[in-house]
Amino acid sequence: MAKVLCIAGARPNFMKIAPVMAALRAPESPLAVRLVHTGQHYDVAMNERFFEQLGIPMPDIHLEVGSASHAVQTAEIMRRFEPVVDEEEPDAILVVGDVNSTIACALVAAKKGVAVAHVEAGLRSYDRAMPEEINRVLTDQLSHWLFTTERLAHDNLRREGVADENMHFVGNVMIDTLFRNRQRAVAAGETFARAGWANTRLAAGAYGVLTLHRPSNVDDPATLKRLLEVLRELGADLPLAFPVHPRTRSRIQAAGLAGYLDGENIFPLEPVGYLEMLGLMRGARLVLTDSGGMQEETTALGVPCLTLRENTERPITIEHGTNTLVGINPERIRACFKEVLTSGGKAGRVPELWDGRAAERIAAILAGDLAGAAPGTACA
Fold it and tell me: The whole model's pTM is what?
């Protein structure tokens, strides 16, 4: 029986790995599958909350890497993952997304002659200042199976010399998770009540959702201040619920900008679980974000999204979906925000194969290629 190690390390991975693990461990699967958690995101309580909500099995192996600079964290994941590969002797590893765990484990496996499967391959922002872009490009170059969420990704991969036979258009596993859990989403009112905002403007149900975490938006105090100023201004017309990433909160405090989280126009929340965030998005008038995954989720939910970035690796959410790229220019943000409030925003449509069955397609391809392979010989 061929063995596959599935890798997760950071919360954006969890929504992607959940349906993949379920499909690979289905009763009819001919594969032996083990889950490796690198510990890149080390908030144990929040991690366990995601695992419980999404039905992810507890990791078989936990590397407990923790936080560090990109270089140190990537190196430490590699150092701790290499003996796991030596001991487990997998036929393949499966990585998702574009975090440091993705490239680190792919690099170890490739140097050990172990085939790599990359879920969410071929996405490109063409912005090499983004660490995630470097991770995406390099992981795709190391991978044998490149599972894509949209057809445009195949054009990106061809330009980089990837062979067509290694590309597989399967759909979007993030949307698998969303479809599976949308009826279980926690109502926004319940989340607000838990946070102590039950008797505020949010109670009416007319609100927006805000998230910020990209270094380009939060690391420079001037940029962060400019964004918070315009967002607080917009919050006078539509209150903004703001689940604050721990790193973002520390940047806001260090810059002396905590006053912008005033509980009048911007309502700060502690980090929330997946079902809580799903409920917040589903009930929102609009979403303002710099998150890649939320561009996809809002498209699937039909909720207008304004992306606070100058580029996106998910152009299909703009071309087919509900997403508008607004950058960080206050005037453009104001104009697009007002357009959503007056016209309702882009209607959009759900892209091709975003149907909740992407993980099943991935499992079928891997099972077909790996079943019956002698240990260590698959795709050699």
Answer: 0.94
